Amino acid sequence: MQAIEILERLIGFPSVVGTPNGEIVAWIRHYLQSHGAVVTELLGPEGDRSNLFATIGPKEEPGYILSGHMDVVPAAEGGWTSDPFRLRAEADRLYGRGATDMKGFLAAVLAAVPALAAASLRRPVHLAFSYDEEAGCRGVPHMIARLPELCETPLGAIIGEPSGMRAIRAHKGKAAARLTVRGRSGHSSRPDQGLNAIHAITDVLACARAEAERLTRGPYEPAFEPPYSSLQVGTLKGGQAVNIIPDTCEAEFEARGISGVDPIILLAPLRAAAEALSRRGFQIEWRELSAYPALSLAADAPLAALLGELTGIEPLAAVSYGTEAGLFQRAGIDAIICGPGDIGRAHKPDEFILASELLACQAMVEALGRRCT
């Protein structure tokens, strides 16, 4: 099958983050097995979604991982001019949810599988397809934990997030958390008899604002834009009516850390401010939603040199968005980002990828295969 045909099939599966993914997993598994790949389906703890790990070539030798996620963000936003789960082609543009983030990469890799299978690979090429990346990389840690039984320690992992086929050596880490504050309701005319949850949470919001401002003063890593770690309040919900004391308020916070900065630690002052509210009679629930580490691959790493040769483009130092790459690096596997498409098209109506980008990615994967013969 050609890459465009495969992309059409993949987009047809509405594999929205946080939902069962059995259909897309079954199709990819059958396709890979039909070309002789050794495929392992790794059921996640949720029980209704799985990672896929496949090997082409000798598993007892160290090789390379091609990593991508099968889930997509929802497509309920307005502005779509066609069914987001049906591929639409207009000239070189291929529209559909996940076309660029990141089913285009999956399609290009799968289109290269027949060439990889026909080659006499001395080093294996592994495919690591994960679930729920869009929820904070929730699926891939379960797969990474199983790698010692699935393959020899890889020489490197290529994470195919959209990068315009230019390799990227670093990205920031991220952590997100949800705070729920519960007080006591009542009539607004008697504030002395209630506990206003919105008033209480403003202490934590003020802390978040102060921490965000403090981070702008460094430490700095010039490769990033902005060159410092960051923190923000992302959502705020509370209250029922203007004349009712709000008994519940909820906020979500996100921190992004430069290399060497644990994003979970960046949220610690907010958690401490939240826990202080319990001494005033409020009930506090702090829930970590997601976390993944930063990626930092040295400029002279063999994997960076390899990707520069495969793409013909000098790797980029860093981007500020995050991927699964940092998790592979934390597991002791060199990782780098390189995939088709543009991150600026992701998570938007009429998301698209160019057919030429698919072909360029397929060519890169096939060139990697030739390096492994």
Description:
The protein is of the alpha+beta class and 373 residues long. Helix content is 32%, strand content 24%. It contains 10 helices and 17 strands. The strands form 5 sheets. The protein has a 6-stranded mixed β-sheet, with helices on both faces. The chain has a 4-stranded antiparallel β-sheet with strand order 11-13-9-14. The protein has a 3-stranded antiparallel β-sheet with strand order 4-5-17. Helix 1 crosses helix 3. The radius of gyration is 23 Å and the shape is elongated. The relative contact order is 0.20. The model has no long low-confidence stretch (mean pLDDT 97).
What distance lies between the first and last C-alpha atoms, to the nearest angstrom?
23 Å
**How many DSSP-defined strands?**
17
Low-confidence stretches: none
Question: What proportion strand?
Answer: 15-25%
Strand adjacency order, main sheet: 1-2-6-3-7-16
The largest sheet is:
6 strands, mixed
What is the rounded Rg? 23 Å
* Order of helical and strand elements: HHEEEEEHEHEEEEHEEEHHEEHHEEH
Instruction: Give the number of helices.
Output: 10
Topology:
Blueprint: H1 3-11, H2 22-34, E1 38-43, E2 50-56, E3 64-69, E4 88-90, E5 93-95, H3 99-118, E6 125-130, H4 140-150, E7 156-159, E8 170-171, E9 173-182, E10 186-187, H5 197-215, E11 230-238, E12 244-245, E13 248-257, H6 263-266, H7 268-276, E14 283-292, E15 295-296, H8 302-311, H9 325-330, E16 335-337, E17 352-354, H10 355-371
Parallel strand pairs: 3-6, 3-7, 7-16
Antiparallel strand pairs: 1-2, 2-6, 4-5, 5-17, 8-15, 9-13, 9-14, 10-12, 11-13
